[in-house]
Amino acid sequence: MRPSLSISARGKELPSSPIRKFVPYAEAAVKRGIHIYSLNLGQPDIESPSEAIEALKQTDLKVISYSHSAGNMSLRQALAKYYQEANLPVEAEDVLITIGGSEAIMNVFCCCFDEGDEIIIPEPYYTNYNFFAQLLGIKIVPIACSIDNNFALPAVADFEKIITPKTKGILINTPGNPTGIVYTKQELLALQDIVTRHNLYLISDEVYSEFCYDGLQHESVLRLQNIEQQVIVIDSFSKKYSLTGIRVGSIVSKNQSLIATFLKFSQGRISPPFLGQIVAEYALKYTNKNYLIAMKNEYEKRRNILVAALQKIPSVKIGMPNGAFYCMAELPIDNAESFAKWLLSDFSYNNSTVMISPANGFYSDPQKGLRQVRIAYVLNEEDLSKAILCLSNGLLAYPHKTV
Questions:
Q1: Which of 336, 341, 370 lies closest to 353, judged by CA?
Q2: CA 359 to chain centre
Q3: Whole-prediction pTM value?
Q4: Nearest C-alpha neighbor of 321 from the set 335, 340, 298, 302
Q5: E strand map for 138-211
Q6: Fewer beta carbons below 10 Å: N end or C end of the chain?
Q7: 3 state SS of 92
Q8: Residue 189 and residue 175: Cα distance in Å, rounded?
Q9: What letter does residue 44 receive in the DSSP assignment?
């Protein structure tokens, strides 16, 4: 008799999303009549550009067809112009369109790394890096960053200690998710030195490039000279234009062998979303520049409100985010995952509660960051203030505090 069917070992071993796995608890709370302030997802609440929405209204298509596997040339040209306006040396041939930033990450990993290869990533880092690396048999070698120094990039010597013959690349995220870190030109030059001497790829996830605060400017690895063949940028329309649902992202690289290889993976999935590309192109070409400025200023105001409120809560430690729209906080609790579940299943304040992301999912080892949480400040100012008041009262009532 044949054995019963089973799920693959790969499927069993893949991690659940630390951001989304508490959804059932939230749904149960809603059924009980509890209002939930969602601080867990990086879902912008700011309206998408009206120019992009108008693109859908004006579309007069008889057939919604496949696009080119590389993406519509007109969109690739518009993206190249977007970079050129920031004085970055990008041509349309350097750009490929992807199904969101997630596909860009996965296929870059497919192109650059074989099973057993190693990639160095400053941690804590975006959870999907873990997902795709594990799926493909790539080993993430974390380099630890600390909330005590605002998650600053470690020294070159620290990178040197963990480089092995299997190391094939370094991946950074600037501005960063979940920390809000913004790397400086000097830090990028230090990375340039490392990848030059060890002949490594330098992959930079820059999907939050429009959101830098406190007068800081985004520094792209595309500005680095003499390592153009080693540099790959991952980008997306999801955050900077508040268009998460169109599922359109991109990669940029001067390495045409990489571009040609990436295109083979793109051909396997046929094409990126046709309608999404139309919306993305309109967003690039016709969105008023004041939209991005106003969006950045709004997130900076929210950041200030969040940080000021968290600093008033006793025994809470925070990393000051200089970009993106996330903040890492260390709470006076025993375990952030237990606390996040408790907030949804056992607590309410003024008939409301808060949904947060435990930070251990942003580390390579789930036993790290056990008292830390990621907070996404994607609520309007009034709701954000109410959410932090709710969180503060939750900390007071939580039975498993550490202080």
A1: 341
A2: 14
A3: 0.94
A4: 302
A5: 139-144, 167-173, 201-205
A6: N
A7: helix
A8: 16
A9: -
